[in-house]
Every structure is written in structure tokens, then in C-alpha cells.
Write a structure and sequence with these properties.
Blueprint: E1 2-3, E2 7-8, E3 23-24, E4 34-35, E5 60-62, H1 64-72, H2 75-86, E6 93-95, H3 103-111, E7 116-118, H4 123-138, E8 140-145, E9 147-151, E10 154-159, H5 166-175, E11 179-182, E12 185-191, E13 195-200, E14 207-210, E15 214-217, H6 218-222, E16 230-232, E17 235-240, E18 256-259, E19 262-270, H7 277-292, H8 297-313
Parallel strand pairs: 5-6, 6-7, 10-17, 17-19
Antiparallel strand pairs: 1-8, 2-4, 3-7, 8-12, 9-10, 9-11, 12-13, 13-16, 14-15, 18-19
Helix pairs in contact: 2-3, 5-7
Length: about 350
Amino acid sequence: MRRDVAVEVSRLLDEDSAALQLEVLSTWGGLDRLLTRPRIQKPGLALSGFVKHVYGDRLQVLGLTEIDYLLSVGEEAARVGVEKYCKRKLAAITLTRGLEPPPPLMELAEQHGIPVLRTPLMTSSFITRVTRRLEELLSPRANIHGVLVDVLGVGLLLIGRSGVGKSEAALDLVLRGHRLVADDVVEVTIRPPDTIWGSATQLHQHHMEIRGMGILNITHLFGVAAVRDNKKIEVVVELSDLHEDDYDRLGTENNAWPVLGVDIPLVRIPLRAGRNISSLIEVVARNQILKYRGIDSAREFQEKIATHIAMTTGVPLPSTSPEDGAPATPLPPQGSGRVQLGDVE
């Protein structure tokens, strides 16, 4: 697993950060300075010299209030406060609303090698966007061996041993009108509060490897509607050739596959000759949509059997509450609810 603990300021200027609309005002270096927290900081009293709570590893954001203050107190007073502020080893200073920086700010920033950026966005809009972007860049990440597809709007991560047929199943799903996100290597990350998103690595994006055919460009073959750049992972589908007894026959076990500490529902599909795997995967997506709407077919069937047993035998149903999560039936016990599977690098 690879974890990002810091990100260079220059990452806020790349193509993926275009929504921030940032430009560099400084002509000196410093874009390799590191940000380690997704939260930004507005200096406030720090510009008057009280810098105790200024954190250099956060992006500093100056809006209309801060610039008006520096212009109103006079150049000498502004220089005293800004000099103490810049001595906090700031990673970067950003001006919003397209404001012009006062001369003391630029001079002292240059003296301390602090990059100065500017955006035309309003302060509140910029803070929302840059916080979201920094959360993405600083989130824990991992590379998983598998295939990620978007089926009916549901993100399905296909896992299994190498050569089991994950890519072939994904290709069949693309032929059915669904979308490929990543093949072979899926880069996953956490988005607050606890959702897992997956995407392809930059080199593998929109490509798929099919044994006997080699590398295919899915965009060129099927068009841009057949791919997407990233998707929330909502169900993990394991394709394997384990013994039939290893599978849940009723579909009532709450198995999960942990990714970066977040448990994702797991469905295990046994491989047999002649089975239409892509159709089964599509049904998994449809069933997940039903569960989002509060419809659990397996549980409803189980409750129907339990009711029938109670009516024919006179044995009362065990009382359960929705909070305890216990099965409202004397049928066989459920699974452990947590399965450690797959390859996480």
C-alpha cells in the first residue's frame, strides 16, 4: 500500500486541478514546497504579527479582508506583520478574487522563497474546491489487482486469480453498453467520510488486456461513452473456482471485502463451464440497486420461509429488532461478515 503524506504545491497547478484556476505570480522557485494537510488557513490576526497558530504546511489563503487590511495600515506596519508571517516557513500563499498583492507581501515572499498564487474565484468557492482537491491528493491510496466497471451506475470491482477471466467479463459488459474504469491495476483512494473510489493509472487508462489479442484501446473501439475516469466502488465481485460448498446459497450472508479500512459488500461467483458470467455480474448490479431502495430479495424470502414454519409448526418467530441485526428466523446461522480476499499492493 502506498500512502501520500505530503503533496507539492505544483500539484495544484496541474491539469487535474484546472478547476482551481490558479496562476503563479512569483518568479522565484518554491513550487516544490510540501502541503501535508487538506485544510487551508486564512491568516487573520497573523498579518498583525500574532503568528503563534500559523501552520506552514497548510495552504495560506488571503481574500479581500486581508488585502484591505494590509493596504489600510500603511506599508511599514504591513511589512512588520508580513515579515513575521513569512518566517513561519509557509508552503504557499494564494490570493483570491484576482486581487493584486501589496508590494511588502511580494517582497517578503520572495525573500523567504514562498510561492505566491492567484485565482479569480471568490474566496468561499476557492476554499471549497481546493479543500476537496487536497483531500483527494492527500488521501491514503492503494493499487489493487482487478478490474473496475460501471454497470448501471453501480461501481463493481472484479477480483480473482490471474487468468480467471476478469477482463473478458468486463469486455462483455462493455459490449452490453456498460463502462470500463480500470483494467488489471485499480488505484483506489478514500474520499471523506468513508467511500472508496477507483481509477486507472495514467498509463493504463482506457486500455484493456485480453489474452490472445493483446492491449485494446476501449475508447477507440467503442467510443468515449464506453469508459469513465473514476467511479465509487460499491460492490466487490470475486470470480473463482472454489468448491460449491464455499458459497452462500441463499444470499443472506453479509460478507465484506476491506479496502483501506472500509468494508465493501462482497459477492462471490463460482466459475463453471457454460455460465454467462457477464449476465450474473449485471444482475449483481441490479440487485444492489434494489438494496439501495430497501428491497432485499434474499431476506424477504428467508422471512417468508420463517413465517411459513411458524404457521405450520406453531413455533413462534424469535423477536428481533432492526438495530441488533440478528436474523428473524431459526434458519442456519449467517456468515462471519468479513472476508480477507484479493491482492492489495
